[in-house]
Each structure stands twice: as structure tokens, then as C-alpha cells.
Amino acid sequence: MGVRIGNLLNRVAGAAVLAFVLLVASTGLAIWWNARQDSRPASDAIVVLGSAQYNGVPSSIFEARLEHAITLYEDGVAPVIVTVGGRAAGDAFTEAEAGREYLASSGVPAGALLAVPEGVDTLESMRAVSAAFGERGWHHAVVVTDPWHALRAERMAEDAGIEAESSPTRQGPAVQTRGTQLRYILRETAAYLLYRATGESVAGAPGIG
């Protein structure tokens, strides 16, 4: 009897491990596949997720997102670009403000810009954007972020009540080498599974929170 129970427990444990491995693998594949998509439907706004900024100057990751948003705006995807992101301790500018100023200096009209200076991670940012959308009667957004971050950003936007699709940037540090891409995919896989399991975001590295 003891041997049979032991064998049964081993099988259950093996099945659980296999299910976990398949879940991680399928999630990583979904992140990779979604990163290769580029949706540009006519929308109420283009939402650029913030990243690090240095005294009002966007980091290279953030700049790549902003440049892509300019392309989408010029292509007529949406009449407004929304920048979002709060302020880290000691910063003089929020990510949203730094992004708005970069876009304005690049020739985007002030009337086509909206800064939402809230959020220390993707989930908080999407909830803040959702509130801004609600105030204006907007519903649909094209989200601009890094390719590997796109799936989780879309999910969080939809959970916040926004009809979201993503058009990830193809430039910047997140896509420079295959090693970098693999590292981002692994980190995003963990972050996405954590969010689906707990409903919470994970703050940390640029594009991951």
C-alpha cells in the first residue's frame, strides 16, 4: 500500500511539474509572438508607457518609445498621444512630463498631448490612464512600449477597462541583441504569470514594472 501511495504521489508531483513547465513555456511563446505583432487601428489615443528619465531627458528606452509614438501620430493612428508615469524619489520631473516635453520639442502640437503624471509601474499607470480616458469618453488605445512588455501591458490596460492593442517599438536597448531579448522574455514571463496569479504588478527594471 505504501509503495502504491508513493508511486501515486510521484506521478502527481511529476504531472504538476510538467504542467508548470508547459505554462511557463506557453507564456514565453505568447510574449514572443505578441512582440512580433504591430496593431495600428484608428484609436482615441496613443499611450506611451513611461520609463526612466534623467532631469527631464528620456532614457534611450523611453526615447525609442516616444519616437515610435510620433510615427504612429503622423500616420493618423490617433489624434492624441498620452504619456504616463510618475516621479521617482528625488526626481524633478515625472516620466509623463519628460515624455510630453520631448514630444512637444519634436513638433507634436500641444493640443495633441496629454500627460498623466501617475504610476510607479505598469498597472498603476494603466489605471491612471483609464481614469483619464473615462473623463474624456475615450475607449480605445494603441499602447506603445517595448516588444516583450506588450502582452502584459495590453492585459493590464484591458483589465483597467481600456480596449487596447499594442504597437511596440523596434528600436532601443530592449531589442539590441538576442541575449538581451531572451533576458527580457524570461523576466516578462515571470512578471506576466505573477500578475495573472495575484493581480499585482512588479516594480523594478525599466519596462518590467
From TrEMBL:
Transmembrane segments: 12-33
InterPro entries membership: Cell_Envelope_Assoc (IPR051599), DUF218 (IPR003848), Rossmann-like_a/b/a_fold (IPR014729)
Matching Pfam families: DUF218 (PF02698)
Keywords: Membrane, Transmembrane, Transmembrane helix
GO CC terms: plasma membrane
Domain DUF218: residue ranges: 44-190
Protein name per its UniProtKB record: DUF218 domain-containing protein
Source organism: Blastococcus mobilis
